[in-house]
């Protein structure tokens, strides 16, 4: 899951909020958590951006105390009226923007995010690629138009966008849920993917793949959003938030055997203090035929925004270098 980049100026910051349900306090803190309900006002009914921000904060209330992320750019990514477009895909209007020229590079954001979430990657790669970035279904400016949001649906939306733009082959950088979508697209084989970078992705939503505290928090939020919907609470768009919660707590459910179908060259990347367990990141890497692995030292799930310089350099090296996966067994040399 990702924090959204939108509405930071309009909503209070959480750097000084007191600790709330922070499992990390008793061990090594990777990300600090703050109580959003104590600080967020309930006058958000008419603001989609604030609703999406609330979703992110409710699920994983990121405090600026330990992980500082940059979302300040000269260009209004995600709200660029000069180039932003809508296209109807699978009965929903999907919003997207394009930057630069060259090989097509898709940037896919994570849960509760938007185009702006990938701003650090747009800034870096737009001088090297034709960068294509969209708001995933039900997030940002894109319509939901479904009663049951799934990763399969989001992947099909992206495949529809690729077809609409008549792209012969693509590269993908996916962050969190975006990495899952990238894996789904690579497995389906409906589009020709040359290289995929999957940051902080997972195959399952349980504690064999995701840190225990994150699983518990996601399940708690599913219960909470279900309750709000049943109560007909009007302080937020709980129907949308419930579906985003479902992506976190109930999905994905990809058999590791499906990874063998991937023909693309893949970089599996995560922070060493990621929400996704390192052993699970390794499991994904080991089951993809042409994969490389990078565990970023001293980084969390949010490295693309908290340390974009290092993240982008690692990704650029992978995208521009011939693929190799040498064997350390020198007896075979």
UniProtKB/TrEMBL annotation:
Keywords: Hydrolase. InterPro entries: AB_hydrolase, AB_hydrolase_1, AB_hydrolase_fold. It comes from the Bacteria. The keyword Chloroplast does not apply. Residues 104-205 form the AB hydrolase-1 domain. Transmembrane segments: none annotated. GO terms for molecular function: triacylglycerol lipase activity. GO terms for biological process: glycerolipid catabolic process. Pfam families: Abhydrolase_1. This is Alpha/beta hydrolase.
